[in-house]
Amino acid sequence: MAASPVLRLTHIGGPTVLLEVGGWRLLTDPTFDPPGERYHFGWGTASTKVAGPAVEVADLGPIDAVLLTHDHHADNLDGLGRALLADVPTVLTTEAGARRLGGAGVDGVVGLAPWATARLEAPGKPTIDVVATPCRHGPPLSRPIVGEVVGFALTWPDQAQGAVWVSGDTVLYPDLLAVADRVDVGLAVLHLGGVQFPVTGPVRYTLTADEAVSLVSRLAPHTVVPVHYEGWSHFRQGRAVVEERLARAPAAVRDAFRFVPIGEPTELPV
Fold first, then answer.
1. Domain extents for the chain?
2. Could you confirm whether domain 6-261 is CATH 3.60.15.10?
3. At residue 2, does pLDDT exceed 80?
4. Is the pTM of this model over 0.90?
5. What burial letters (b/e) apply to 135-168, b meaning 16+ CB within 10 Å?
């Protein structure tokens, strides 16, 4: 049996991650605008980008596919990120996002409902199956307001240590916990941040540190890479909050978390 390839992960900032494995170069949620702009998300919510990307678009190199958890919030797809899509052969996203992007002239967009599968194939590279996983980007009954979001679970032949899973922007709820029952997750890229907005008070729109501990306890991955916790003003729980909570977590959960240096490629077993 061929040896499983090592995955090289670069956290570019916010939710944006470059995944390199077996010759593939996959990018999640492209956000490349400079800091300083304020973006409005609707219903009185807004956020300011406070940090730019650690890697500029010009230095990124060719991308084989974008894994876009959702297209309608600028902290997951900003102006320069949207422009980048024109040069990418395949974009996997939500069904609603595929309709919007396709209507805007973006080619190669595939919309996936939760638990639907797409396949990435190319000569000389391992075939990657991408399963869309469920997300709820807010409290119960909020989907008509916050819109559709998906995560992505990636598997390929001879993968030795479980799927690579990108959670997407989500809170903890039963459908998300079902990922643990349906996917053998080895490496989890978790969108954290505990997002809140003044206009909606205590309501959260992404995983909190407490929720992340509960989720990881259920998933039991070998590695967890936190993202989506810095770079924007609406992220309410940064690294310090997560690490404080991890200090009280079970050892197996605490030891799985790995904050990778932003902008530096990190090799991880898969």
1. 6-261
2. yes
3. no
4. yes
5. bbbbbeeeeeebbbbbbbbbbbeebebbbbbbbb
172: nearest Cα among 219, 229, 214, 221? 214
pLDDT tens track for 189-220: 999 999 999 989 999 999 999 999 999 999 99
Token representation of residue 99? 């309709």
Helices 239-246 & 209-219 angle (0-180, nearest 10):
50
Contacts of 6 (CB under 8 A, 6+ apart): 21, 267, 268, 269, 270
185-191 and 163-166: which strand pairing? parallel
* Residue 22, both tokens: 């077996």
- Both tokens of residue 259? 């904050």
Note the pLDDT of residue 157: 93
